[in-house]
Design goal:
single chain; 388 residues; alpha+beta; three-stranded antiparallel sheet; 12 helices; 11 strands; elongated
Length: 388
């Protein structure tokens, strides 16, 4: 335990001894000024932003990671789990570790990881994701960027940087919270205004009018209080002559709150490439079963696939030799029994999976020896003995 603690703390101790500033105007204990008026924490209070971050981060982080080895034109699946994906950080939870990485990219456009432990060959075994607001990158020379964490320079070899959308000649990815601060800020303003509108009662709930008498303010207040008390007590209301009682109602659609929120949700969904109806937006068409199915397919192919490929490429570069990692996207179809069994049947019939491989996906034990569990391609039933 003592050795592990010293190895884990070594990168942080090295940073503490560095006495070189990123730039003289940058505070010593900070990574630089904020890049947006809307903070990441405040952006997450907007439901469409939180929904987009939750859908993408949870969908990707809960997928199984598989390790392979390249062998010419073929690949060989490996059964063991690399230390980096078994206990990736001090918490040791792969799902939380991946979720931190994705949340950082989704809100700030970049994920910065500090390598805190390596194996005897120098390959990373532990990576701690840093707060992107505490990291500053000197992009003067994009070929050799210089990374600073809390104002101190970090060896580029100890940093794992995964950007989202990067402009040519740049290293740091665009921050969605900063680039679309006006859109997110508009949603926050609409939400706050709606809460204030309803908290303050909106429009008066009713009008009580007398056509023949002029009511002074004191009498008006007394009549209003008596009327309100009768309504709260659910008792009959008796009105004399010349009084006209009109109840008022204003629908949310007329106040344009719902329409404004829906439009804002649709815009935020477009930023993240998430189907609008999943975050409270408008699809622009009536929803049918085929539309719902198409949206689910779009979520996998158009929304999640780019994130999966980005992570796979970076994680594979951290593996030794010819080893590389892939997310098992087939796990996404396990909720549909019919689709899953149909896919298994096609895989067996076309010969690109063996029965034991299919059984492993279904958490079943392999077939006994001699039953053809490792045979690829269609299988024929064994011939019956003569006379039967």
């Amino acid at each position: 335990m003592y050795r592990w603690t010293r190895a884990f703390a070594a990168p942080f101790r090295r940073l503490a001894t560095v006495a070189k500033r990123a730039i003289t105007s940058v505070p010593w204990a900070a990574g630089g000024p904020s890049t947006a008026e809307v903070s990441a924490a405040r952006a997450l209070t907007l439901i469409p932003v939180f929904a987009c971050v939750r859908i993408i981060s949870e969908s990707v982080s809960t997928l199984p990671l598989q390790l392979f080895r390249r062998d010419g034109s073929s690949r060989e699946p490996l059964s063991y789990v690399p230390p980096l994906f078994w206990a990736p950080d001090a918490q040791g939870d792969l799902v939380t570790w991946l979720s931190k990485c994705l949340t950082s990219m989704l809100l700030r456009g970049n994920a910065y990881g500090l390598i805190t432990q390596r194996d005897p060959l120098g390959f990373p075994t532990m990576v701690e994701w840093l707060n992107p607001d505490e990291v500053w990158v000197d992009e003067t020379n994009p070929v050799r960027p210089v990374y600073y964490w809390r104002g101190r320079e970090v060896d580029r070899g100890d940093i794992v940087h995964i950007p989202w959308v990067v402009l040519p000649g740049r290293v740091v990815g665009l921050s969605p919270v900063a680039a679309f601060a006006q859109t997110i800020g508009a949603g926050l303003t609409i939400t706050q205004y709606g809460m204030s509108w309803f908290a303050n009662g909106g429009t008066p709930p009713a009008v009580l009018k007398n056509a023949n008498r002029t009511i002074n303010p004191d009498e008006s207040e007394e009549i209003s209080n008596r009327l309100a008390s009768r309504i709260r007590a659910r008792k009959p209301l008796v009105i004399g002559s010349d009084w006209d009682f009109t109840a008022l109602s204003v629908s949310p659609e007329e106040s344009q709150f719902i329409e404004s929120l829906r439009l804002n949700a649709t815009q935020i969904a477009a930023i993240y490439g998430v189907p609008p109806t999943m975050v409270g937006g408008d699809s622009g068409a009536s929803m049918t079963y085929s539309n719902v199915e198409a949206e689910a397919n779009n979520l996998i192919t158009l929304t999640l696939r780019p994130w999966l490929v980005r992570l796979e490429n970076v994680f594979s570069r951290l593996m030794p030799g010819r080893e590389y990692v892939r997310f098992n996207v087939d796990a996404m179809i396990r909720t549909s029994v019919i689709d899953r069994y149909t896919a298994h049947g096609m895989a067996l019939a076309q010969g690109w999976r063996s029965p034991n491989e299919v059984r492993a996906l279904e958490n079943l034990a392999p077939l006994p020896p001699g039953q053809g569990g490792d045979i690829y391609g269609p299988r024929t039933a064994p011939a019956l003995p003569a006379g039967e």
